[in-house]
Amino acid sequence: MLVGGFSYSQIQQSNLLTQQVEDYARQNSQLLTQIENNSLTNSESAKSLRSLQSESSNRDSQLAALSRQLETVQQQIDPITSKWKREFANK
User: Fold this and answer.
1) Residue 3 contacts by C-beta under 8 Å, 6 or more apart in sequence?
2) What does the DSSP 8-state code read for residue 3?
3) Strand runs (DSSP E) across 1-91, as ranges?
4) Alpha carbon distance 76, 65 (integer Å)
5) How far apart are CA 42 and CA 40, in angstroms?
6) Residue 80 and residue 85: Cα distance in Å, rounded?
7) Tens of pLDDT, residue by residue, the chain (91 residues)
8) pTM above the 0.85 mark?
9) 11, 3 contact by CB (below 8 A)
10) 2: β partners
């Protein structure tokens, strides 16, 4: 059957192609939104990671400083404890 120069099957095929193009455009838009959201999430994660790395570095520095302080105190205490040990051993 011809309708204005197009057969019914050609109209159906045209409608189907139009629907497929609309579906493709909708899916494309959804994918672009997901990419944008993932990019924002990745950016926030990268910022968090840099912050955690900085905090870890600061804590490492603090631990190193405390370790040096402990070593200094230990060096100051060792002669005193050695002296006490000798004094008690001589009694």
Assistant:
1) 11
2) E
3) 2-3, 6-7
4) 17
5) 5
6) 9
7) 455 556 888 888 999 999 999 999 999 999 999 999 999 999 999 999 999 999 999 999 999 999 999 999 999 988 888 888 877 888 7
8) no
9) yes
10) 7
